[in-house]
């Protein structure tokens, strides 16, 4: 068994320390009300979007399959989780984590149902099937009585209260960190390498003895599960959900985050999910022009950087420090403190 | 009788899908791009009709012609500005797709800025008394929709199979590299394809305005998606396939409206799509291509 190198341990420790520091700083700022609820809501939404983007990155970046119905999995998770906490009379601190798992499992199940037949298809046809699935799920949610039709579910309790301002943040933050960690380890694991091999050449992968159906399904269901959990978080974060919140535009929004950051690059997804959540809020002053500006930025990035901002490379703190150390001349240290290594 | 008139109603609506599906199909055939901005071209065409006919009070034929011309040019301009660079540099196809989504968002928001987000009402354009045909009533819009779409398809088929530019289009979609070696200017051909597709979408827009009383900046979204479903259903890349898909979709929609529930229309449409793709992944009339190692 190959031992973990000293450098790797150091990198883990450093990143863990940064993550904890980040958590302590932000949660203190929130509970001291230095960051008001408007901004803390944006931070939570940003983290939820990061979870979604990273999960889609599993399928689109790692497996190389285009998915246009990610919001459908999110919808399943959101409704399952919200229905659970609305109907089960348990204290929220108990029912919330169970609801998240139920949301994730429900989404994973729908991922299995759509994935088994759909993954036989390739490329654009798979994309179209997932698009169709997302739309059907939305229409069904619009017509069932248990989902309360187009009015949706409301009165979903949030973990936040007047005494506990960071309840949601804590959950969302650590789930985001866990999902990111999971993706990094998955990408370098045996299973992850098999998935990447399928992306590079499916026929060659199959010829080398990789069970392509199994691995495609694995990545697909894992992504669906995470999207379901994110849906559960989303439902409890905003308190009311209706089917129109999970339409085709939502799916493309998540896809844009992945592609803009660089397909297959987890840090790229994180950065672009963060920026794309903040950007519309920051542009609120130009409310009429903000979507116009957003689309122009999108087109320009794609035109001049077709592989996304980071391409397939990852941003790593240790790597950057190394690079800076090696670089001749006193280049200033890069400021952005990222949690990955 | 009720059943038959529902079928004919469906064909009328399906004609609009069919015309838009043709554009999706041709563009996909030539550059393998799901052109998500295509649905919004219908919206552009509809607003062009609105501007010329209602705001400027000009005659109808000018509105129709103007809208077609405007959309055709818009299609070429969009191709040149947004897609050309990516096509030339052989960028990953998903980047092209994201650019198309970007163009779609851009068009929707541009028109929202220009005309406001509230719907604009359209006057009836071509009206004559409904035709009675053995107990079935054919409304004027149904007759016009079906006949225009059939004429358009025949014209397009002729263009693609007989004319020089049509042959260039087929050659480029078959093998762009080889087409280039044969002296075909693939860039012009691709731009022309976008132009023709958009012009057809404008025809679809005129029919849409004649059938439905209102237009709004986001009207292209779902309409475009459904037309795309029609293109896939019939076999993407095939002209008769796109027409067949459009008609089928229209009939399925009007059947669901009449006999099941109008709330479930979209679910039925996408359900049919999924079933067809699972049974025959290349669509009803699509060619089966084997992947070589």
From TrEMBL, chain A:
Keywords: Cell membrane, Membrane, Transmembrane, Transmembrane helix. Pfam families: BPD_transp_2. It is a multi-pass membrane protein. The chain crosses the membrane at residues 12-30, 42-60, 66-86, 98-119, 125-144, 165-186, 214-234, 254-279, 291-311. InterPro entries: ABC_transp_permease (IPR001851), LivM-like (IPR043428). It is found in: Cell membrane. This is Branched-chain amino acid ABC transporter permease.
From TrEMBL, chain B:
It comes from Caproiciproducens galactitolivorans. It is found in: Cell membrane. It is a multi-pass membrane protein. InterPro entries: ABC_transp_permease, BCAA_transport_permease. This is Branched-chain amino acid ABC transporter permease. The chain crosses the membrane at residues 6-26, 33-54, 60-82, 94-115, 135-160, 190-208, 228-251, 258-279. CDD domains: TM_PBP1_LivH_like (cd06582). Belongs to the binding-protein-dependent transport system permease family. LivHM subfamily. Keywords: Amino-acid transport, Cell inner membrane, Cell membrane, Membrane, Transmembrane, Transmembrane helix, Transport. Pfam families: BPD_transp_2.
């Amino acid at each position: 068994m190959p031992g973990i190198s000293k450098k790797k341990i150091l990198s883990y420790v450093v990143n863990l320390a940064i993550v904890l520091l980040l958590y302590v700083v932000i949660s203190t700022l929130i509970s001291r009300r230095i960051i008001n609820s408007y901004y803390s809501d944006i931070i939570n939404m940003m983290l939820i979007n990061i979870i979604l983007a990273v999960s889609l990155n599993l399928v689109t970046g790692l497996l190389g399959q285009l998915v246009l119905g990610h919001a459908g999995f999110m919808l399943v998770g959101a409704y399952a989780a919200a229905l659970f906490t609305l109907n089960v009379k348990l204290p929220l601190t108990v029912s919330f984590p169970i609801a998240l798992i139920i949301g994730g499992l429900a989404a994973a199940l729908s991922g299995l149902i759509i994935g088994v037949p759909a993954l036989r298809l390739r490329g654009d046809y798979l994309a179209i099937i997932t698009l169709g699935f997302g739309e059907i799920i939305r229409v069904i949610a619009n017509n069932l009585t248990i989902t309360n039709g187009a009015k949706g579910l409301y009165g979903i309790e949030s973990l936040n209260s007047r005494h506990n301002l960071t309840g949601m943040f804590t959950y969302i933050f650590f789930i985001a960190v866990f999902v990111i960690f999971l993706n990094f380890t998955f990408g370098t694991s045996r299973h992850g390498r098999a998935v990447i091999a399928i992306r590079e050449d499916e026929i060659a992968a199959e010829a080398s003895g990789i069970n392509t159906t199994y691995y495609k399904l694995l990545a697909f269901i894992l992504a669906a599960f995470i999207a379901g959990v994110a849906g559960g978080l989303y439902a409890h974060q905003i308190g009311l959900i209706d089917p129109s919140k999970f339409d085709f535009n939502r799916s493309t929004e998540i896809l844009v985050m992945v592609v803009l950051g660089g397909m297959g690059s987890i840090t790229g997804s994180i950065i672009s999910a963060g920026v794309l959540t903040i950007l519309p809020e920051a542009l609120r002053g130009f409310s009429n022009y903000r979507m116009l500006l957003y689309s122009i930025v999108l087109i320009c990035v794609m035109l001049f950087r077709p592989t996304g901002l980071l391409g397939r490379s990852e941003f790593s703190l240790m790597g950057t420090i190394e690079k800076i150390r090696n670089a001749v001349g006193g280049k200033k240290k890069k400021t952005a403190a990222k949690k990955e290594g | 009788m009720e059943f038959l008139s529902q079928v004919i109603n469906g064909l009328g609506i399906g004609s609009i899908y069919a015309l838009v599906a043709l554009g999706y199909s041709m563009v996909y055939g030539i550059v393998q791009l799901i052109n998500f901005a295509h649905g919004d071209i219908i919206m552009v065409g509809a607003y062009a009709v609105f501007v010329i006919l209602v705001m400027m009070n000009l005659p109808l034929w000018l509105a129709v012609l103007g809208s077609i011309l405007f959309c055709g040019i818009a299609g070429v301009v969009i191709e040149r500005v947004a897609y050309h660079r990516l096509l030339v540099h052989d960028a990953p196809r998903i980047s092209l797709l994201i650019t198309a989504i970007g163009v779609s968002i851009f068009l929707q928001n541009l028109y929202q800025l220009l005309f406001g987000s509230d719907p604009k009402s359209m006057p009836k354009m071509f009206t004559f008394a409904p035709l009675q045909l053995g107990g079935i009533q054919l409304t004027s819009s149904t007759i016009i929709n079906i006949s225009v779409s059939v004429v358009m398809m025949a014209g397009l088929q002729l263009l693609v199979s007989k004319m020089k530019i049509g042959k260039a289009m087929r050659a480029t979609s078959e093998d762009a590299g080889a087409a280039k070696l044969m002296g075909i200017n693939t860039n012009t051909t691709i731009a022309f394809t976008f132009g023709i597709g958009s012009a057809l979408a404008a025809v679809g827009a005129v029919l849409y305005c004649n059938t439905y009383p209102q237009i709004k900046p986001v009207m292209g979204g779902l309409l475009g998606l459904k037309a795309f479903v029609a293109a896939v259903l019939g076999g993407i890349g095939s002209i008769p396939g796109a027409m067949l898909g459009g008609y089928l979709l229209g009939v399925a929609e009007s059947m669901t409206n009449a006999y099941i529930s109008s709330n479930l229309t979209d679910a039925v449409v996408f359900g049919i799509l999924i079933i067809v793709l699972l049974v025959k992944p290349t669509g009803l009339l699509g060619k089966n291509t084997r992947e070589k190692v």
